[in-house]
Amino acid sequence: MRNLFLIGSLIFFNALTLNAQMGDIEKANKQFELHAYNLAIKSYTAILDDNKSNYPAMVKLADCYYFTNNMAAAAEWYQKAIANDLITGNSYFNYVETLMAINKYAEAKRLLLNYTGEDTKTAKALGESCDFALQKKNLPPLFQVYEAKINSSASDFGAIFLDKNLLYSSSRTDFDKTIGDGFNVVTNKLFVAPMDNANTTGAPALFKNILNNGKNESNLSYSTNGKWVAFAKNNFLEGTRQIPAAGNEMSIFIAEADSKGDWTEARAFMYNGNGFSNGYPYLSPDGNTLYFTSNRAGGQGGFDIYSSNRDGEKWLEPTNLGTLINTPGDEIAPLYIDGVLYFASDYHMGFGGMDNFKAEMKNGSWDKVINLGPNVNSGYDDYGFSYDAAKNLGCFTSNRIGGKGQEDIYFVKKEKNQYTIRVVNAANREPLENAHIEMTECTGINSAYTNASGNSVIELPPIFDCKVKVSRGGYRTHIFPMSNNADREIVIQLRAQENEYIGKLIDQTTRQPLMRVFVKSTEQASGNVEETASEEAGKYGLTMLPGKVYVIKYSKAGYSDVTKIIDNKDGVDKTILGTIKMIPSQTNLESAIAKVENEEAEQTPKKQKKPAKAERKTTSVNKETPAKDVVASKPEKAKSTEKIEGFSVQLASAKDGKIELEKFGNLAAIGNIYHKYEGDVSKIRLGIFPTRDAAQTALDKVKDKGYASAFIVNENITSEDSIIRALNKKESAVATKSEVQPAVSESEKKVNGLPKKPTPTPVSVTEYKIRIATLKSTVNLQREALKKIATIEEVNKDGNIIVLLKGFTSLQAAQNVLPELVKLGYKDAFIVIEEKGVLKKVN
User: Fold this and answer.
1) pLDDT above 90: residue 155
2) Is a pLDDT exceeding 60 seen at residue 31?
3) Least confident range of 3-7, 735-739, 768-772
């Protein structure tokens, strides 16, 4: 009896402990959800003190340390959790970035090689950054970096130079005791510190008096004449990293400034909104262009960089700076000066966390993105870079180890002005010795030559802008512009004349040549990369070896990216690159990417003329008749010219016209599979998707099913195009018996002794729509944001306006954009189809 009492007491005690732990976990998770990471650290620590095997709490505790920049503690708890294979999702990548921060790049790379999750793009990007850091971390730095004297034990950040002063934001409380809010949450205010001729800062003071100095104002930017100022209001918390993933939110305000840089009335930027942030504003010198960061819908990933031009009292619709700058990760803190864009990113190849980068504007296009190198960048967060070449002075913000506070301000100046030019063979990246480098225009020195390693080190004046000529016997001469904004190590790839191929790039709409298109060629087997840009007349050259396959990507601001795969086979065809037509991105944004309709399929022609040429015949299969190749030849053009635009996933192509549509039937759950004809090549594609993001989601699923060579294409279909056959989700890869073609005699199979060509089968695709809301008025409808997702349709019914997004040709395509609508605040949006004029919800 006594034993039963003890067992019962033990069970009761354990139940109480379990209930208490459940309550503690819910409390800790809520603190984490609210980004109160310092409070959550205490809660998760207490939970682990009671139960050292609570692995979910371990991961959350590690994440808290990650977001509060305690990377050593984060690494310790991630290591304990991963020993039991219990780190998944974003936490896995957080662990990788934690290892990068503490300089364990090789260990981080091994972790990525063992990654088995779905986000392979992020894993690949982080792996490339690990390789980059291992190669570059010991290079001579471009800048000398030293800590600003005004730094405190709190967060000091967002510095700019204004006349002979340094303006910045700080969470320090020793100047204003009202800066705390009673809940131990420290906000930030604007400070100013004078600078002498030696660029040394004096004692700081509040920039505005205590009554007028608003809390949580940062990232000031002035026009050159001082008339206009832009700034951001933020919810930064002391002790938490100032990165988007930590839950930070910002809004932009613009005001007219007085002679002291102060202002009394600020207006919210007209493109601020709910459910997303706008921050890190930068005003152009004339005050008429605003560069800023936003995670608004329709971008490339997380936070992207945008620009907006002033039009009188208003600002024009923001423009995304494009895929060369913006990535699936976060890009923040833009500054555009003298043709150079400085910004920070956690996705471009770097040393870890946020790194500082630059890109030059050349002939209306962004040139390649360049990491600013060690010292300016570390494994921690480095951002907000600006530099004045004339003064050889710049600054940035960093939370690296060794500073005084959570974030600190650092000054920079360039080291000795030496540049290394490395010349390699474009085909295999082998160094080229005795390459001639002519820099007379830059230095007055007639020439220099590369050594056995392909390198030549040249000292240049502090400010220069000139052209450099690199040549070697048997190779195509390369001439390129070079300025003091160039990377310290410049790699020049010379193309052997025997392996050079020339291509051309044009605008699909105007047919005009495109200059400064960024071209990246990757040889599939070795991974060797060659980068170049199109020149006048839209021409560019690449090195390609016989028997090799190359993946070539074309990028230009204002245009949709194009990817092309070239199999160079015997290497004889020097015109294999052909002419690439690039589609202006604005066309994709505004086109009615609606549906694939074939009105002729619903009508019976009164009179059908006999075809003068052989007709195409559609083959269908059943379980008793094995699938055979469908021989596709070019059909006669239809009369209708309805245009359908969007994005599709290309699965396969065949120049001889032989395809097996049915073997792709296992992809029908992802979207509609169709076969079309382009020139002499028949192609199998999956689509059509209204946005590139929707197509990317589909592509990821396709690759997961083993189709590694699939890629995204810009689809542009009219009824003149030959869509031969389609499989959709409602079709299986094997047809029913009723679909089998009747027996055909041998004589009927031929016309003039030749095989008959199959006849196109009309495509019938269910159109899916998304019901956004039912409104009395659409005045507050986020029309511009919705237009970037799909075509808006408004239906008047019973005095109300039903707002829809239309044009989705598969259920998956519609489902893919629902998260974007939730971000815009349309949480109740749902998918519908229209049947006989009635909208029916799709469950």
Assistant:
1) yes
2) yes
3) 735-739
**308 near 315, Cβ under 8 Å?**
yes
Find the length of the chain: 843
- Computed over every residue of the chain, the mean pLDDT equals 79
Measure the CA–CA gap between 386 and 342, rounded to whole angstroms: 7
Q: Cβ(246)–Cβ(240) under 8 Å?
A: yes
Q: Which residues contact 586 (CB under 8 A, 6 or more apart)?
A: 558
Rounded CA separation 614/308 (Å): 55
pLDDT at 779: 67
How far is 617 from 638, CA to CA, in rounded Å? Answer: 16
For residue range 601-615, what is the model confidence (pLDDT) as tens digits? Answer: 333 343 344 333 333
Residue 265's CB: how many other CB atoms inside 10 A?
Answer: 7
The token duo for 187 is 């906000």
Q: Which fold has domain 24-136?
A: 1.25.40
Contact 335, 323 (CB under 8 A): no
CATH of 416-494, one of 2.60.40.1120, 3.40.50.800, 2.70.150.10, 3.90.740.10: 2.60.40.1120
Q: Which CATH number fits domain 591-601+614-755: 3.40.50.1820, 3.30.230.30, 3.30.70.1070, 3.10.20.340?
A: 3.30.70.1070
Q: Closest by alpha carbon to 839, among 792, 806, 791?
A: 806
Contacts (Cβ under 8 Å, ≥6 apart) of 705: 666, 667
Cut 0.85: pTM above it: no
Q: How many CB atoms lie within 10 A of CB 710?
A: 22
Could you tell me which CATH number the domain at 143-414 has?
A: 2.115.10
Q: What is the rounded CA–CA span in Å between residue 807 and residue 768?
A: 7
Render the burial of 99-135: b for 16+ CB within 10 Å, e for the rest: bbbbebbeebbebbeebeeeeeebbebbbbbbebbee
Query: Please, what is the Cα angle at 492 between 490 and 496, to 5 degrees?
Result: 170
Please name the fold of domain 507-587: Immunoglobulin-like (2.60.40)
**pLDDT average, residue stretch 814-831:** 81
Residue of higher predicted confidence among 599 and 306: 306
pLDDT at residue 680 greater than cutoff 90: no
Question: How far from chain centre, in Å, is Cα 70?
Answer: 28
Average pLDDT over residues 258-279: 90
> Which pair of tokens denotes residue 596?
């694939």
Element (H, E) at 96: helix 89-101
Res 400: pLDDT: 96
Rounded CA gap, 202 and 190, in Å? 16
Picking from 563, 562, 578, 750, the residue whose alpha carbon sits closest to that of residue 679 is: 578
Strand partners, 373: none
CA separation for the pair 826, 358 (Å, rounded): 36
CA distance 380 to 352: 6
Overall average pLDDT of the 327-338 stretch:
94
List CB contacts of 800: < 8 A, sequence separation 6 or more. Answer: 774, 775, 776
**What three-state secondary structure class fits 544?**
coil
Residues 57/66, Cβ–Cβ less than 8 Å: no
Query: What is the pLDDT at residue 11?
Result: 38
> Rounded CA gap, 192 and 823, in Å?
37
Q: Are strands 355-362 and 365-366 parallel, antiparallel or unpaired?
A: antiparallel
Residue type, 28: A
CA dihedral 548, 553, 554, 558 (to 10 degrees): 170
Rounded CA separation 337/357 (Å): 14
Q: What is the mean pLDDT of residues 232-236?
A: 89
H helix or E strand, kind and range, residue 219: strand 217-222
Q: Which two tokens stand for residue 310?
A: 């002033």
Does the fold of domain 416-494 match that of domain 24-136? no
